Amino acid sequence: MRSILQIILALALNILIISCSKTKQEAPVPVNSAITVDITATHAIELAYPIKALTFLSNDTAPWLGQVIVLTEKGKLYSTGIEGNVVKAIGSRKYKDIFGLSRKNSAGVFLAITDNNTLEAFIESDDNGNFSAMTISGNAKNLTRFCTTSKPKSNSIKALTSNGSSITELHFDITKLVIEQSELQEILLEAPIRGCSYDDDSYTPNANVFSINGEPFSLSTDKKHIVLNNAEAQDGEVYNLSIENGFSIQGLKSASFITLTTENFGGTAFKDGLVAMVDADRPKRIVFISLDYLNRTITELHAP
Fold first, then answer.
1. pLDDT confidence of residue 289
2. Residue 96 and residue 75 in contact, taking contact as beta carbons nearer than 8 Å
3. Fewer CB under 10 Å: which end of the chain, C or N?
4. Which residues have C-beta within 8 Å of that of residue 4, sequence separation ≥ 6?
């Protein structure tokens, strides 16, 4: 019975991913009927180098000590906090993607894909932004990019393999400085895709999928527009987000990269998570938006 159920689940996932692979990979282009929504920047930091991507590592005991892991355009890794005061270098290779795991009451761990498609892992050494390399055991996979998700993952990931021609799901057992990986499943795609995000069993290319009042929304950028789209709305509910200046905090015109987390990063603003946007015009700069504030703003648009 268990094997039959696994086959059914695998077939269902295959259908979802194949449909995803046929979707145009760029962010949704805003339609004429899209609603422009002004969102005030909550916080911002500026680092010393252009940023390609970033991921989050929360801290259950002291949320304000949560780490932001940054991947630069030159493939280098750094850690910093929400305030950006202390920046520490991590690793010795060149990398092309990163993914932070969520570990309750444990040291933070994140994964990185190197420029030759191998997987590396790093564990938090202290509360000062220092990380140590971990030993990875198990069969090595040829990975090109992680599939992103707004839901915290403690011991599993999904990633594109073989230049985007399949998606693999990996499970990890973590003990001290050793991380053992095992493959749960791999699904072949009809056509290669460049990126994938997911929320439960819903897949969206190159977008961040999360919920507002129980409805799935995707947040994405084409480096010109920041688009929030209700994935289930039959009338095409699409919002163009305009990131405006906050109190002594400059907004941005467009974003080159967007990610988000639903985990607590401290204070009233970030207790329910946050959105991070890399400024397309100033790529060393990260603008943060309170996820609670974004949710309330969109919810108020639906109020009678």
1. 97
2. yes
3. C
4. none
